[in-house]
What we know:
The protein is α/β, with parallel strands linked by helices. It contains 20 helices and 22 strands.
Amino acid sequence: METKFIDLTNIKGQQRIVEEKIQTAADIIRSGGLLAVPTETVYGLGANALDEEAVHRIFEAKGRPQDNPLIIHVPSAQWLPRFCVDVPPLAYTLARNFWPGPLTMILKRSPAIPAAVTAGLDTVGVRCPAHTVTQAIIRYAGVPIAAPSANLSGRPSCTSAADVAADMDGRIEGIVDGGLCTVGVESTIVDLTVSPPRMLRPGGLPLEDLQRVLGEIEVDKAVSAPLEEGEKPKAPGMKYRHYAPKAAVTVFTGNPRRTAQAVVQRLKPGVGVICFDEFESLFQGYETHLLGPVDDKEIQAQRVFDALRAFDTGNVTEILAQCPDNRGLGLAIGNRLKKAAGFNVVDVEDERIILGLTGGTGAGKTSALKAVEDLGGLALDCDAVYYELLNTDTGLRDAIAGAFGSQVFNPNGALNRKALGELVFGDNDRLDQLNDIVFRFLRPELERRIAAFQGKLCALDAINLFESGIDKLCDCTVAVTSPIEMRVRRIMERDGIDEKYARLRVSAQQQDDYFREKCDRELSNTAETPKAFREAAKEFFIRLIEQIKEDKANGRK
Length: 557
């Protein structure tokens, strides 16, 4: 069979050509053909949902089990009464909030929908895709389109027309190229035939967004574990191993820093790695595909299937993958990775707790660090570590000299802090340049020292905790704050300077409200002596550690 490619990218201002191509695509659907269509989530393999023979061809082309139901795609909620019965008001509430978009609703089907679409169930999944091309094809065709993901069954889903061609060229009548998918994971599926509503599959619409509209919503056990033998899936993606590349996959869940270390320990010839961008340097010499930054789940959702597919062109025999937490889109991304692994998951226990301390000068961070040491923890002053690196790391010294000139170092090799300060202070661009260099060398050194420490508690003191990205290493960030007058007095006593200069030092830094807004917790210092604050900080950290342990035990941050 010859597959027709219909390119609907980069055709702005060519309305007649667009209409002709949309009409060609719609004709394939109306004539009983199979057509791969773009959506915001993934590409779908579409057929006329009212044509039972065409629907059967979807299962044949994909090699899809017959008991795995399909989703029908409609252009608006106005089509719901035509293909569903007893539609609850809640369905229209969800449609107003989330359609067009990555939400599929399970509703009672009408007799107009063939049993082949629903795998014999009396319910049907319905969604309205947020892609103008596919919406137009549905309207021109005049029928709902039944469309699972346009990949061979069990393989990673397709987020580009090229992915579809790799799996479906010669198997189907047409492929519509509508560009890259913007969401990257399939739709969220919610069953509205039960009370309370139940999420059957996490997807591009986060659970938290649904909760804001629905209030109570249950999460089906199939989201985090396979169905029992003999259980019948009520929605796509619930029963079978999905999204799998050719190589076996193992997924690592837990703190990203710890899961990266766990993956390193499992490295051997033939292993490939899917990791967060921040840890790429740990896997040099191994085929590695990046999932995205730790805190950017939108990018992770867009990349997850590409990462899984990419290994199929190489010689990797095993894939080790880091997994995001379950918040936001992380629930869907993790579900896809775990499905690809057949739920072969390693939960990396993270008994170690890392605290990030920040705050203005004179607030009492040094005493807080000593309190951590009193508790048997490792206390790292990032400024002190930086100056140590200046004496030991030639790469850091060379980078600074290359950016600011050799004159910033004395003849004996020591950093000339005054000369460097004259270049960067008052020039924000040059200061940012210096900070970028320092952070690039500082963070790996902190990670090395933390990894070498045998204890369970670490604390990092950094004035630029968030700007440096060091906060990503931490389980909890703490703002150490203190009234300005007390800070001024402490600085005067500590550094032997007059009040005017002390106030100038305080005013030149971010104020306490900045640190309060950025950090998870606040440790306020109103103690009269460093010793008193050290004791108060110790009690604060004991309570905080217990809370962090409880949060981890309950799957929270």
